[in-house]
Amino acid sequence: MSAENTSPPTEDYRSQERPTWCPGCGDFGVLSAVHGALSQLAIPPEKVVAISGIGCSSRFPFFLSTYGIHGLHGRTMPITTGVRAAGRDLHVFTVGGDGDAFAIGGGHLLHAARRNLDITYLVMDNSVYGLTKGQASPTSALGYATKTSPTGTTDIPLNPLMLAMVAGASFVGRAFSGRPKELTRMIVEAARHPGFALIDIFSPCPTFNKVNTFKSYREEVADLPEDHDPTDLMQAMNRAACESPRYLGVLYRIQRPTFLQQLERLKTGTEADRPRLMEDLFDEMR
Ligand SMILES: Cc1ncc(C[n+]2csc(CCOP(=O)(O)OP(=O)(O)O)c2C)c(N)n1
Ligand code: SF4
User: Fold this and answer.
1) CATH number given to 4-257
2) How confident is the model at residue 283 (pLDDT cuts 50, 70, 90)?
3) Ligand with smallest separation from the Cα of 206
């Protein structure tokens, strides 16, 4: 029997809840890519947990038949770290918006990346705060006008890919919900990657963001050149920084010890590997 024949149907990963997103929201494409990826990965639903913050995109766990936590705005990483450490046989998908990830959750993101936390982090990046009705987000373009910034934002946009690489993420990709096949493939790769895998997904909000649309992204994006070397940090940085085109693909991927491997080492390693007890330290100071 071929590997495809052993994949459970995507329906196995759908919950009874119907998504409450606006018609045309980019998050629909991400959801169906996740259903497809979980089916290809053939992970039983009870071995998957989806953890989100707050936002339209953070409703995601409701639409999966897996375990899920709809947490607090910007606090996905502390929750994810606890779940990761406690449920070592689980596959952890953290999901949410660019506001959740890069604004209020930005501090946590850096440390989860440098810790090489073993998770797949899917950011539905629509360059706007959808749930709270259209304020500028960290990835909104300079000058982007909203009801709360009518003359345009004065901040330059943050580059999530460069940020993740600088912080130490070991897998960094960019995808577009308008290209579901590539997105599904990348989610499968990210889920198989040992360590912190972030995919920044262009996922348009047609209700509040009239600038970053399916049409505009289609015109802006291009696949990474075939000779791209994902282990070359400087090449990855240059291509992440490029705005014309905005590259899609796995920009950076390296192998280094993960959070769970380090925990295991502390448990089973030699005495020298283990952190010294406070008492030992006090003894030394006496
Ligand atoms: C601590 C806290 N601060 C602010 C809010 C209000 N709030 C809810 S969602 C959100 C931003 C949503 O934008 P994003 O995370 O990009 O997700 P989207 O709705 O665009 O998917 C904000 C500011 C909140 N719920 N909790
Ligand atoms: S407001 Fe925007 S992000 Fe939220 S569901 Fe509607 S289209 Fe999607």
Assistant:
1) 3.40.50.970
2) confident
3) 2
